[in-house]
């Protein structure tokens, strides 16, 4: 029979049970935190079996030569001798003296050849106090942090009934009272598996270790008396146990799912003998062995399909033990929300929900608005993080790969191992997440070409006077780090849009005009760059690209530059040799060049300060520093610039630096959002219960193409005369020639003094309506509409509702402009059909905002999540990882500092803080001519 014939899922489906297991695993990590609080320890220990009594690596399991034929399964062959690692322990999660009343346990790792192991876990009581995983975790949570038996029993009596019911509470307490007892010798205890496992074709079995009688030794005494006793026995000779199994008879007599019931009147059959050989336990070598074994992550699912664990409690153990072990080893973290915080958020949330019906958060006084945002963000974290991948099925496993040392200390090229317990979380190739359920039934109507023509086309440039064009270049610079969908070549797989009337379109540079527009289809829903904030636009998202960008054939610390500029790309498809060069234009070139130079400056400073640093450590540390500096600039400078209100200025400062020095604000944030008190970089990673990824909705709200102007003016460094360029003149393959002629300083100055476009309807750059990239010609206004639909992002009204915002009921709520209103009504007919990208642009933003409040809700959720989930921006944002110089570089640095460091002539021009992304003060033209003359004279003097 198959294992499925013996199991019954708890819940309607297997997926329901798996989701429950994830919640239970998180609760067990909270148990570990409570136990740590009782001990006052810096490190987390196991949730249970916290005290190691004995650990050895040289045990042997000798299979019986007369093993019955039905039990000859897998590695259990007559006469086989299998190496065993053993750990004996006291069951309480808080280490107690061996004299205390407690359960005792043993974990065996049977080495079956190669990397195949079988972990067998047992305790010295034949049944579990709990019948299933839910009851077990409820019990564990109730006794967490309590060491005395009376305190445990009182907590169980008070807290268990509401979670498991009165009868289960009575049974659990009774089993705990009977099983928690004093022991004189672990070598004389019998240990039981409680739950069942498959035994190959023999079907389900339960197993036990029964001690083999041996000569007595003087009893141990004191708090470590069990270790003393075991040590004396091993000094005198071998210690042996018989491994025995009970075979399954029927679900009534031998239940698989209920671990609280014994298998009565079913005889045990001997399978093998465990021999722990004679040895000394008080040597230095024995202590090293104990330390190694103590760090092992035992899990009953470390086995093979033949010996698959069975039953609900065993199925839950896979996720629970994996999470608990990762938490203990500092690879996974958990943050417990106190009851006070939960209740206050619930109460304050209801108050703000009523207040917001009349006064939205952005119209409240700053302190109230901050609290309103804290409550909103918590609601979004709880409701709007959707894992696109189904829960991992419960399957047997081998002990997972350990993070390589270099991945623990530094970022990897492709984003793997940022979360040390989940290698591929957020890595290149990981799926995009979701902030709301996918709309899989999107209509292709109205015609996206007509939508773009009527609602997006720029006729007159609408400027955003509070920003400069560097703000537009910056967000593209960031988006290149965060997200990239793979695309099929348009000739192979395309979305075909018939064009209205007699219009034609050429979809490739060498194609012919057709009355159909071909748009390249997405190649799946996986990110082609890492999801982490790791500077991949500068460093690349794979090891091969990262090596190509470095000096000395990929071994140097510095990035390759040619006369201070990015190298020309050696192959087709790349404009320059950079981490990301898609949709290349002069603004991107300026920022990429600036931060490549910044990386090299950090390298030089590190090697000056720490001469013993090798090239690899210098490179990796500089990458950490530059990536963190970019994250800081975006958080506390770019964001307050584009969301120009006092509330958002304070909120983003809170994200990075912690609560303001105002007792009322600090008190409110401490009560509602403890993370905010000290700033996210001073907390631990927290994924809010969902693996980290960037989302399709996040991609949608960052479609900010209207920021780009069509026309630009740069001062010719040779003549000092202004020169006009169109976007086509400073984009694509010709970008670098223009950029090198103008130079970095003049490029930054010109972009810093000019204003971008406003993020609104009727302002889509003309140049992007006929944009060449990779041999294709695209209308990005049409593409923005089509791709959002195809990716299943809900339409605007459903998008708002999913973000807990009121639906609009009339087109007039979006606009009062007669022409726009007429176009919306003609194209959509109903407000529920409005495309999300159109609704976001049509919506009137809050005062001072550069984009809509609806888009801001996704930003509110994901902006802090990008920081909060990242190990290198939280728990590992510290001098031991970044070096003291690196920490100081980030803490003191800003965009203006970077500009001044590499373009000293702009020291009096570039603004500080968020003013760096506001229009810079432009010195009078004669001053620029004089500065140019001085630079020319200086160069001639050096040449002479």
Structural class: alpha+beta
Number of strands: 17
- Enumerate how many helices there are, as a single number: 33
**Silhouette:** elongated
Determine the N-to-C terminus distance.
Answer: 91 Å
Can you put this structure into words, describing what you see?
The protein is an alpha+beta fold. Among the domains are: 326 residues, Catalase core domain (Catalase HpII,  Chain A, domain 1), CATH 2.40.180; 41 residues, no CATH class. Helix content is 40%, strand content 11%. It is built from 33 helices and 17 strands. A hairpin with a 6-residue loop joins strand 14 and strand 15. The radius of gyration is 32 Å and the shape is elongated. The N and C termini lie far apart (91 Å).
What attributes characterize this protein structure?
944 residues, alpha+beta, Catalase HpII,  Chain A, domain 1, 9-stranded antiparallel β-sheet, two-stranded antiparallel ribbon, 33 helices, 17 strands, 11% strand, disordered C terminus
Q: Which helices and strands occur, and which strands form pairs?
A:
Elements lengths: L13 H26 L11 E13 L17 E10 L13 E8 L5 E7 L9 H11 L5 H11 L1 H4 L1 H14 L11 E2 L4 E2 L5 E8 L13 H12 L2 E9 L20 E9 L7 H11 L17 H17 L10 H18 L9 H18 L21 H5 L38 H9 L12 H14 L2 E3 L6 E5 L17 E5 L1 E6 L8 H4 L3 H6 L2 H4 L31 H24 L5 H28 L3 H12 L5 H10 L2 H4 L17 H6 L9 E5 L6 E5 L8 H8 L1 H10 L17 E3 L2 E3 L1 H11 L5 H7 L15 H11 L7 H7 L10 H16 L10 H4 L1 H9 L2 H8 L22 H19 L1
Antiparallel strand pairs: 1-2, 1-9, 2-3, 3-4, 5-7, 6-7, 7-8, 8-9, 10-13, 11-12, 14-15, 16-17
Helix pairs in contact: 1-2, 1-8, 2-3, 9-10, 10-19, 10-20, 10-29, 12-25, 12-27, 13-17, 17-18, 17-24, 17-32, 18-19, 18-31
């Amino acid at each position: 029979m198959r294992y499925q014939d013996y199991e019954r899922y708890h819940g309607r489906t297997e997926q329901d049970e798996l989701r429950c297991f994830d919640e239970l695993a998180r609760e067990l990590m909270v148990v570990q935190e409570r136990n740590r609080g009782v001990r006052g320890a810096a490190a987390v220990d196991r949730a249970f079996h916290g005290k190691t009594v004995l650990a050895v690596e040289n045990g042997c399991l000798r299979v019986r030569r007369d093993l019955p034929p039905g039990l000859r399964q897998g590695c259990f062959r007559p006469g086989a001798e299998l190496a065993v690692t053993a750990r004996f322990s006291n069951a309480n999660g808080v280490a107690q003296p061996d004299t205390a009343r407690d359960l005792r346990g043993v974990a065996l790792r049977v080495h079956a050849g190669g990397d195949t192991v079988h972990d067998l876990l047992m305790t010295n009581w034949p049944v579990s106090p709990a019948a299933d995983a839910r009851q077990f975790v409820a019990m564990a949570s109730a006794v967490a942090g309590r060491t005395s038996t009376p305190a445990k029993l009182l907590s169980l009596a008070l807290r268990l009934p509401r979670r498991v019911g009165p009868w289960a509470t009575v049974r659990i307490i009774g089993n705990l009272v009977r099983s928690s007892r004093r022991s004189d010798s672990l070598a004389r205890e019998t240990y039981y598996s409680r739950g069942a496992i498959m035994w190959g074709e023999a079907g389900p079995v339960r197993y036990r270790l029964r001690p083999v009688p041996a000569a007595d030794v003087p009893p141990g005494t004191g708090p470590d008396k069990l270790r003393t006793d075991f040590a004396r026995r091993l000094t005198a000779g071998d210690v042996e146990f018989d491994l025995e199994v009970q075979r399954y008879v029927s679900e009534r007599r031998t239940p698989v799912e209920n671990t609280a019931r014994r298998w009565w009147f079913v005889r045990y059959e001997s399978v093998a003998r465990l021999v722990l050989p004679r040895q000394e336990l008080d040597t230095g070598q024995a202590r090293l062995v104990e330390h190694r074994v103590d760090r092992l992550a035992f899990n009953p699912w470390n086995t093979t399909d033949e010996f698959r664990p069975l039953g609900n409690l065993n199925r839950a153990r896979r996720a629970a033990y994996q999470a608990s072990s990762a938490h203990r080893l500092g690879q996974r973290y958990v943050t417990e929300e106190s009851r006070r915080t939960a209740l206050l958020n619930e109460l304050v949330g209801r108050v703000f929900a009523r207040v917001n019906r009349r006064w939205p958060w952005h119209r409240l006084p700053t302190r109230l608005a901050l609290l309103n945002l804290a409550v909103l963000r918590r609601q979004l974290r709880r409701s709007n993080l959707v894992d696109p991948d189904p829960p991992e099925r419960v399957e047997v496993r081998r002990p997972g790969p350990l993070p390589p040392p270099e991945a623990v200390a530094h970022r990897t090229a492709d984003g793997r191992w940022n979360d040390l317990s989940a290698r591929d979380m957020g890595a290149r190739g990981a799926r995009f997440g979701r902030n709301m359920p996918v709309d899989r039934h999107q209509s292709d109507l109205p015609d996206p070409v007509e939508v773009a023509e009527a609602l997006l086309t720029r006729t007159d440039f609408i400027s955003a006077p509070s920003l400069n064009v560097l703000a537009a270049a910056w967000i593209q610079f960031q988006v290149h780090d965060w997200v990239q969908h793979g695309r099929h070549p348009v000739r192979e797989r395309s979305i075909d849009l018939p064009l209205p009337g007699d219009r034609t379109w050429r979809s490739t540079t060498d194609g012919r005009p057709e009355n159909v527009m071909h748009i390249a289809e997405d190649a799946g829903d996986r990110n082609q760059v890492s999801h982490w904030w790791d500077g991949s636009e500068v460093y690349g998202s794979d090891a091969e690209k990262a090596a190509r960008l470095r000096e000395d054939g990929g071994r140097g610390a510095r990035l390759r530059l040619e006369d201070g500029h990015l190298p020309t790309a050696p192959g087709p498809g790349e404009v320059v040799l950079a981490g990301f060069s898609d949709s290349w234009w002069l603004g991107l070139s300026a920022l990429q060049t600036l931060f490549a130079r910044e990386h090299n400056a950090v390298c030089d400073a590190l090697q000056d300060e720490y001469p013993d640093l090798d090239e690899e450590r210098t490179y990796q540390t500089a990458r950490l520093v530059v990536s963190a500096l970019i994250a800081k600039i975006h958080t506390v400078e770019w964001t307050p610039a584009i969301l120009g209100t006092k509330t958002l200025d304070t909120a983003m400062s809170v994200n990075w630096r912690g609560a303001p020095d105002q007792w009322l604000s600090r008190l409110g944030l401490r009560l509602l959002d403890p993370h905010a008190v000290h700033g996210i970089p001073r907390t631990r990673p927290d994924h809010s219960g969902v693996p980290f990824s960037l989302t399709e909705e996040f991609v949608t709200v960052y479609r900010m193409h209207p920021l780009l102007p069509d026309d630009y003016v740069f001062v010719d460094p040779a003549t000092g005369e202004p020169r006009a360029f169109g976007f086509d003149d400073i984009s694509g393959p010709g970008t670098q020639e223009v950029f090198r002629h103008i130079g970095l300083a003049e490029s930054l100055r010109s972009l810093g003094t000019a204003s971008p476009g406003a993020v609104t309807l009727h302002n889509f750059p003309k140049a992007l309506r006929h944009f060449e990239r990779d041999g294709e010609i695209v209308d990005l206004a049409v593409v923005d509409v089509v791709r959002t639909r195809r990716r299943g992002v809900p339409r605007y009204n459903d998008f708002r509702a999913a973000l807990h915002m009121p639906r609009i009921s009339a087109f007039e709520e979006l606009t009062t402009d007669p022409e726009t209103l007429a176009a919306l009504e003609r194209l959509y007919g109903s407000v529920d059909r409005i495309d999300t990208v159109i609704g976001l642009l049509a919506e009137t933003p809050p005062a001072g905002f550069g984009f809509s409040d609806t888009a801001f809700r996704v930003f509110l959720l994901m902006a802090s999540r990008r920081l909060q989930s990242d190990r290198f921006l939280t728990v590992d944002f510290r001098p031991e990882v970044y070096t003291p110089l690196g920490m100081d570089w980030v803490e003191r640095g800003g965009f203006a500092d970077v500009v001044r460091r590499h373009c000293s002539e702009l020291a009096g021009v570039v603004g500080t803080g968020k003013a760096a992304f506001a229009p810079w003060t432009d010195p009078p033209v004669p001053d620029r001519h004089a500065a140019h003359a001085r630079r020319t004279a200086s160069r001639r003097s050096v040449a002479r």
